[in-house]
Design a protein that fits this description.
Blueprint (H helix, E strand, L loop, with lengths): L3 E2 L5 H8 L6 H12 L14 H10 E2 L6 E7 L5 E7 L5 E9 L2 E5 L3 E3 L14 E4 L2 H17 L4 E6 L9 H12 L11 E5 L3 H10 L4 E5 L5 H7 L8 H15 L3 E7 L7 H11 L4 E7 L13 H13 L4 E3 L13 H10 L1
Parallel strand pairs: 1-2, 6-9, 9-10, 10-11, 11-12, 12-13, 13-14
Antiparallel strand pairs: 3-4, 4-5, 5-6, 7-8
Helix pairs in contact: 1-2, 4-5, 6-8, 9-10
Length: 351
Amino acid sequence: MIKQELFGMTLQEMQDTLLPLGMKKFRAEQVFRWLYEKAANSFEEMTNLSKNDINILQENFTLITNEIEVLRDLKSNDGLTHKVLLGFPDGTSVETVCMHHDYGYSVCLSSQVGCSMGCTFCASGLHGLERNLTCGEILAQVYYFQRFLAMQEARVSRVVLMGSGEPMLNLDNVLKALDILHEEHGQCIGYRNMTISTCGVIPGIRKMTEMGRTINLAISLHAASDELRTSLMPINKTYNYLEVIKAADEYATENGRQVMYEYILLAGINDSIEDAKILANTMKHKNVVINLIPANPVPEKGFMRPSGNAVDRFFKALKEQKINVTVRKEMGKEIDAACGQLRASTLVGGE
């Protein structure tokens, strides 16, 4: 008999699945709380279930959290960043990062194994897209860290979909995972403490607008002209950046959330004062924040990191135009904490 994966089911799905096996609705609620509130990693941990109920679960279901393998485990020198490469039973792997900020712990999640976007500066797509992650596999990244944090009487308080993959191309599983984390008997994380980052897949942005959740939206922009953005991000051929910005404006209006635009600064490519002026003109009078990201060098791509002076000049040029702008605080640089770097180095090393 092929066992069914239980981790990743909603409460309703658990009730519908467990009831025919003789387990009452309140038992499904208990299982739900053990998995998503208490971060149980096995059925044996569910101490308020009967031995018969535990046997039913063991005979019929698996838990992906108990089947993943830690392929790489790295911690930054300052102890604030913890990155792991998690292997799934089918041989695929994804990376995820936990960061300790002054406001608490955030986890950066991957939504796909690899990526199909082909952004020229990013390591995530070096080996292409293999598949979407299931809801359970997305959640498993959070709960890997949550189990450790619980021992310290701490918890994950923020999640960002900024890891490998394009979340809008796996939006159903992404939103299902976020909804479970939002549940009172999940991790009770508010939607305002969740962020989905996209290269600009407009149908996904519009779907999020229609659904009305107050999840933060981040747009990977990285250029403010058609020609340059297309050369860096092939997705711009399908979803023009001005149309992406329009869709993001609609999201901000409908959901009352400020949109973040991520802008990776690449030396000699998009970091000039002229680039800053074009970007400022594009973003004037909009409810946005520009998050500048000095590039993490990806040797396979040949891009260079701008100097500190170049970053400062770009920042000041936007400030002078009254644009809300920040520079991303770097964490875990020495442990390949940028998207896709750890997985890419592991795949190359294994070939």
